[in-house]
Amino acid sequence: MKFYFTASQTERSQAALKHLTTQYGQHTISDADVIVVLGGDGHMLDCLHKYTNTGIPMFGLSRGTIGFLMNAYATENLPERIHKAKTTNLYPLLMDARDRNGQVFESLAFNEVSLLRQTQQSAHIRIRVNDHVKIERLMGDGVLLATPAGSTAYNLSAHGPVIPLGSHILALTPISPFRPRRWRGAIIPDDAVVEFEVLDQDKRPVSATADNEEVREVISVRIRADKEVKVPVLFDPLHNLEDRILNEQFT
Q1: What pLDDT, in 10s, does the model give residues 197-226?
Q2: CATH of the domain at 30
Q3: How many C-beta atoms surround the C-beta of residue 142 within 10 A?
Q4: Overall domain count for the chain
């Protein structure tokens, strides 16, 4: 089994990189069977974007803090461990964001696309699903659309639902809303097209973020699931991502 090891810049990750490349060798991306990611969820997310089109499965080893997308760190019997791992395919959202200058930015998001106010003024956002207005004017800090894999990240901290993998749904979650008073979000099918229109753009500027890529002063954002893109991620059988997401609903 040929490995390509990649590590975040932390001291622990870099020490693990040195140890593992000495033990198992280091191959190029073009020759590798598996990409071994050393770090936390942030570095894994960076790798999901960087190596999206390679088709090479990724196996994370936690050298960070939370490590929701990572496996427990151990260096022994790595080929056997990966051979027994369970594959989970992650599918991203595709964001088209238009800014006030008319420029359109296209980005992928494996966790979520979020809109956030840029100033002390609350954001006012109109929400459409499949060309139908569902919320005429959402007033609050913003709104996000999360994948099942991302439902335990920012979405959960915004009191959105945890979504099991393979459920073919997305979480549409407001961020600190105060109008409509009783709206706390929605669960929508993953073949839906969601559009956000920023209202009162001059007074209430809004930024859009697809995972870690931000677009400032957006006027509209269109989001859909990109079913043509998938990235295989490997997990230890007893700690697979499906079980982790399920367990998050009981903590």
Answers
A1: 999 999 999 999 999 899 999 999 999 999
A2: 3.40.50.10330
A3: 24
A4: 2
Write phi, then psi, for 122 (nearest 5 degrees).
-65, 150
Question: Cα–Cα distance between 51 and 4 in angstroms, integer?
Answer: 12
> Which of 137, 196, 144 lies closest to 175 in space, CA to CA?
144
- Say which residues have a Cβ less than 8 Å from residue 213's Cβ, sequence separation at least 6: 105, 107
CA atoms of 160 and 146, how far apart (whole Å): 9
Spatial neighbors of 156 by CB under 8 A, at least 6 apart, are 162, 248
Count the alpha carbons within 13 Å of 25 in the hemisphere toward its beta carbon. 11
CATH number at residue 200: 2.60.200.30
Nearest Cα neighbor of 100 from 218, 239, 230 is 218
- Per-residue pLDDT band at 238 (split at 50, 70, 90): confident
Q: Which domain holds residue 174?
A: 93-225
- The per-residue pLDDT for range 154-164, each reduced to its tens digit, is 999 999 999 98
Judge whether 131 counts as a catalytic residue.
Answer: no
Catalytic residue among 33, 41, 202, 226: 41
CA distance 28 to 17: 14
Q: Which among 42, 110, 19 is positioned nearest to 3, based on CA atoms? A: 19
